[in-house]
């Protein structure tokens, strides 16, 4: 039996594999819904994808960058950046500047 994959209307958050780069403050360690690989998702992005899915009554998925080309529909739309995501990026940039 094949594993379920995102439907063309589902909300999908593409996530970096854990350990593939620096981790922003407040990021959450999760697992890819397709392969189970450890991934990192920002709180604001996770909130945005869950909200989008709830508003459209569809399922939401966390997918690593390795699985994405195989399971995310080619004609997928990008969600607009939310104010929460912008605030999270500003806070992370501020934190990185303070470390310099």
Overall description:
This protein is an alpha+beta fold. It contains three helices and four strands; from the N terminus they run βββαβαα. Strands 2-3-1-4 form a four-stranded mixed sheet.
Put the structure in a nutshell.
The protein is α+β, with helices and mostly antiparallel strands and 100 residues long. It contains 3 helices and 4 strands, in the order βββαβαα. The mean pLDDT is 86.
Q: Which term fits the overall shape? A: globular
The count of helical stretches stands at 3
Strand order of the largest sheet: 2-3-1-4
Strand content of the residues, in percent? 15-25%
Average pLDDT rating: 86
Rg, nearest Å: 14 Å
Order of helix and strand elements from N to C terminus: EEEHEHH
Name the descriptors.
100 residues; alpha+beta; four-stranded mixed beta sheet; 3 helices; 4 strands; 20% strand
List the helices and strands and how they pair.
Layout: E1 11-17, E2 28-31, E3 38-41, H1 43-55, E4 60-64, H2 68-71, H3 83-99
Parallel strand pairs: 1-4
Antiparallel strand pairs: 1-3, 2-3
């Amino acid at each position: 039996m094949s594993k379920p994959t995102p439907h063309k209307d589902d909300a999908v958050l593409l996530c970096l594999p854990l350990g593939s780069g620096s981790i922003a403050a407040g990021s959450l360690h999760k697992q890819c819904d397709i392969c189970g690989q450890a991934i990192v998702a920002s709180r604001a992005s996770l909130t945005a994808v869950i909200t989008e899915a709830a508003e459209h009554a569809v399922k939401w998925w966390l997918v690593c960058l390795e699985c994405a080309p195989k399971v995310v529909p080619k004609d997928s739309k990008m969600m607009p950046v939310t104010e929460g995501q912008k605030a999270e990026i500003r806070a992370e940039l501020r934190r990185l500047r303070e470390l310099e």
